[in-house]
Design goal:
heterodimer, A: 166 residues, alpha+beta, Nuclear Transport Factor 2, Chain: A, 28% strand, B: 493 residues, mainly alpha, 2 domains, two-stranded parallel sheet, 25 helices, 2 strands, 72% helix
Chain lengths: 166, 493
């Protein structure tokens, strides 16, 4: 009887740690959020990896179609040089510079990520990211679509951008 | 006859109780003046604007697997904008310290007749801890530190009492219930996940106890082996993010042999010097131990009931065991951080565990060697005991922490600090309502030693992190520190 109790305890503790470990493993090998983190840690010279993780053209297309959210919102700090260069990169078809310019922009406006969640459906993965903009009470929410191919996620396009108060 | 008058006994008890309360009282009063600093705001920002669960699991980004600590940060009063609730935290910690010590000593003294004794011992150990702890601000008044180290210390005390209760059951050939084993498992999870320094300590603790029990073919070896496996399974949670996500961050732990040697050496050296100073330069502990020995006639009638609940064969195993456990607390710190820095908060933990180990050892020493200390301890007059108690009172009142705490209260420094912080919060709330959203705050001149710890707004953004902590938490565009007071302070020195 005594020995049974110890075995039950061990199984109980293993279940708790395995559930946490499962969460970590799932995050590492089966999540689009991890892909996003990896993309933001890459440098512009890393051609091959960027192409593996991000469909630059469709991403740029979808962002360009929704760029008015950034341009027309009075609460977002507007940098005309930034917008002009973005438009220029897009017309040139230089999607890689376009993409990295956006990431640098997010860094310069003090946007800090406050929430992100991932919903998976078949081969698609929907990631919602919320950024708090500097000192304001405004958050920008992005909905990004990922496609799973050969075991890795590929950033496809931005589905939605909208602003709301926290 | 005069030397054994009942009045002396009454006076002695009254005086000892008064001294213990005198040591704890200023720390309760100082809680009224406690205020959050920049690091507390930085910990409260994310859970405030986000969800509790997201902020807990955000550790993947920072690679900090302190899930339990993160949960506490996510649920602290500042998260809900309840600034006054911050002053309640030290009181809650003191309450839990007392409760945990009381439960622990109930299990050490383990019979009904001594249950009053356990409450008093808890009070005295807490007063000794407050009087002698290396840094009160880390232990009580600075949330970012106390939620890491003091809460885990309280959980340690609960775990030790749970282990002692189970050992007693095994020795009496009773069944250890699954419920109490689960309790221990949850405590181990919370302790290990509150700070990584406990991985080595708990592993060594259960491993050594397992070896002792196994050599003596004791059924307790099952118990310790179970907890050893539990500790190892929780510890694996820490390693996993480092192994599988090392490509996200350039900082990877390198197990360099020279670093490990240096960490071992520093840990052993500092633990040794700490122990020497806590044993030999701490007269109040020695005098309290003497009082315990002189009072041992209270314990002796029950000694047949108490048997010897000691895990060890003799002290030659017990003393190095305690030393290794205390030294192991420092190893991870020196391995991964700056070795020149003195980790005051870990010294706090060491000090409390040392005090508990001291009392546990002393109690078992009295039970085992009562015949030898019999002639020495018994038949001492009440007047003699009163004089010894007086010496205890004098020695504990004269300790540095107590003096500093009272001087902070009575010199008005703590109140002035509180006023300055309130003024700062008024300025910030005005700035929040204005359109420019820029707060110009003043330099904090009153910095009471037992309340204030440096993470603070910097004048020239030398460490922009702490300015940003304020800006994020209060949604400000910029926070500026007026610098002109700093020169005057330097001139004063």
């Amino acid at each position: 009887m005594q020995r049974n109790n110890y075995i039950i305890t061990l199984v109980f503790s293993l279940c708790i740690s395995m559930s946490i470990i499962y969460y970590i493993l799932d995050f590492r090998y089966n999540s689009a959020i991890y892909t996003l983190m990896k993309i933001s840690s890459l440098s512009e010279q890393n051609n091959q990896e960027i192409n593996q993780l991000c469909n630059l053209e469709s991403f740029a297309d979808s962002l360009n179609a929704m760029f008015w959210v950034f341009e027309n919102n009075p609460l977002i700090k507007r940098d005309s040089a930034f917008i002009v260069s973005m438009r220029q990169y897009y017309s040139e078809g230089n999607f890689k510079s376009y993409f990295f310019q956006l990431y640098n922009y997010i860094k310069t406006i003090d946007a800090s990520m406050i929430y992100q969640i991932e919903k998976r459906k078949n081969r698609l993965s929907y990631v919602y990211q919320s950024y708090k903009l500097g000192y304001s009470n405004i958050k920008v929410v992005l909905k990004l679509i990922f496609l799973r191919e050969k075991g890795t996620y590929l950033l496809q396009y931005i589905d939605k951008i909208y602003c709301s108060t926290i | 006859m005069m030397t054994n008058h009942p009045l002396w006994n009454f006076l002695r008890r009254f005086m000892l109780l008064l001294a213990a309360l005198y040591c704890i009282f200023p720390f309760i009063i100082l809680a009224v003046y406690a205020n959050p600093n920049a690091e507390d705001f930085s910990h409260s920002f994310l859970p405030k604007v986000s969800s509790v669960l997201y902020s807990v699991f955000d550790f993947f980004k920072n690679k900090e697997a302190r899930i339990f600590t993160n949960l506490l940060y996510a649920l602290n009063p500042l998260t809900f904008g309840f600034k006054e609730g911050y002053k309640l935290l030290p009181l809650i910690l003191i309450f839990f310290f007392l409760t945990a010590l009381n439960v622990l000593f109930k299990n050490i003294f383990s019979i009904k007749e001594l249950s009053n004794f356990s409450g008093f011992t808890a009070l005295f150990i807490l007063s000794l801890f407050f009087a002698g702890m290396p840094s009160p601000v880390h232990a009580l008044y600075w949330m970012s530190s106390s939620f890491n180290y003091s809460t885990s210390l309280i959980l340690w005390l609960f775990l030790l009492s749970q282990i002692l209760a189970s050992i007693k059951k095994i020795k009496d050939f009773e069944l250890v219930k699954v419920k109490s084993l689960f309790m221990g498992v949850i405590l181990i999870f919370c302790i290990v996940l509150s700070n990584e320094i406990y991985i080595i300590t708990l592993t060594l603790f259960f491993f050594m106890l397992f070896v002792f029990a196994f050599i003596r073919k004791n059924p307790m070896s099952y118990f310790f082996l179970t907890y050893l496996f539990v500790t190892l399974s929780v510890s694996s949670i820490y390693l996993l993010p480092h192994i599988i996500m090392s490509d996200l961050s350039p900082v990877v732990i390198s197990f360099n042999s020279s670093i490990i040697n240096a960490a071992l050496l520093l840990s052993v050296k500092n633990t040794f010097f700490n122990l020497v100073s806590w044993v030999f330069l701490n007269p109040s502990l020695i005098i309290l131990s003497l009082i315990f020995i002189f009072m041992s006639s209270i314990i002796y009638p029950y000694s047949s009931k108490l048997k010897a609940k000691f895990v060890f064969v003799n002290f030659w195993f017990y003393i190095p065991f305690v030393f290794i456990i205390l030294a192991s607390l420092l190893i991870p710190y020196y391995m991964f951080r700056n070795p020149e820095h003195q980790p005051q908060r870990i010294f706090n933990i060491q000090f409390m565990i040392f005090l508990v180990a001291w009392i546990y050892g002393l109690f078992n020493f009295i039970l085992r060697n009562f015949k030898k200390i019999d002639s020495f301890a018994l038949n001492k007059s009440a007047l003699f005991k009163l004089i010894i108690s007086l010496a205890f009172v004098v020695s504990i009142i004269a300790t540095k922490n107590i003096k500093v705490a009272y001087s902070d209260i009575f010199s008005g420094k703590a109140a002035a600090y509180n006023n300055e912080m309130n003024k700062r919060f008024d300025v910030i709330s005005n700035a929040q309502n204005s359109s420019h959203k820029t707060a110009v705050v003043e330099y904090i001149e009153n910095r009471p030693q037992s309340l204030f710890f440096p993470p603070e707004i910097e004048p020239e953004r030398a460490v922009p992190m702490w300015n940003e902590a304020y800006e994020n938490y209060f949604s400000l565009k910029e926070i500026i520190l007026l610098n002109h007071h700093k020169d005057s302070i330097i001139n004063k020195r």
